[in-house]
């Protein structure tokens, strides 16, 4: 396995990292600098969990420490589910695999970026205004080689380790991006298909101003597919959402925001000058 991310990540907003917060009763998240790592209780004894995404580089100790505090000293994830493979979602994955040895799952279309076969397109600083967008060409875009530690999610939509959940293909930000949904309480783990903060703005990321947006513009590769993914998410009518970037959102605020986002996406989210317009 190789990791091209070490020592290349510039921690723009380290002060954003905060205490773990609960989304719903059995869904916990931790912000590692600019991105959320999610823990889902997956056992009746409260000591089993599934991990969603792997944070930024050098966050492994923080991720492990929270798991041990919340689930017990010897708890380990039954699986690690990746919404996609951008550097801020897999930055600490090699250390987590070494420590826990859990299986890793991702969408089939994301595997080339996770098995050392492809790199992501470089960031597009013209896709949005805002300091983070302008600095985005410094962000790593290389794939990572997890070799046989990663495998494709089941084609039937089931999620290993999460029996009540199913995965939904929500491409656009990346080809194999997924979101996770639980019908029982209409809880959605959206990855970067949507965000609840304007991720391109350093000020908004620092203050965590909560508002619904599409995926981070500088790394989004197909805006038409991204729009269709937002429409699919809105059609689910989720009652609670945690995204890869930003704070949770609930109820009427969420549903009204999703309808508005889906309807106005071409005007408010699609960058007119992006090289990734299709």
Describe the fold and architecture.
The protein is an alpha/beta fold and 278 residues long. The protein has one domain (14-268): 4-Layer Sandwich (Metallo-beta-lactamase, Chain A), CATH 3.60.15. Helix content is 26%, strand content 21%. The protein contains eight helices and 13 strands. The chain has helices at residues 60-71, 87-90, 93-100, 111-114, 131-135, 202-207, 223-236, 251-268, and strands spanning 21-24, 27-32, 35-41, 49-52, 77-81, 104-106, 150-152, 158-159, 162-169, 178-182, 187-191, 240-243, 249-250. The protein has a seven-stranded mixed β-sheet with strand order 1-2-3-4-5-6-7, covered by helices on one side. A six-stranded mixed β-sheet has the order 8-9-10-11-12-13. A hairpin with a 4-residue loop joins strand 10 and strand 11. The relative contact order is 0.15. Residues 1-16 have low confidence and may be disordered.
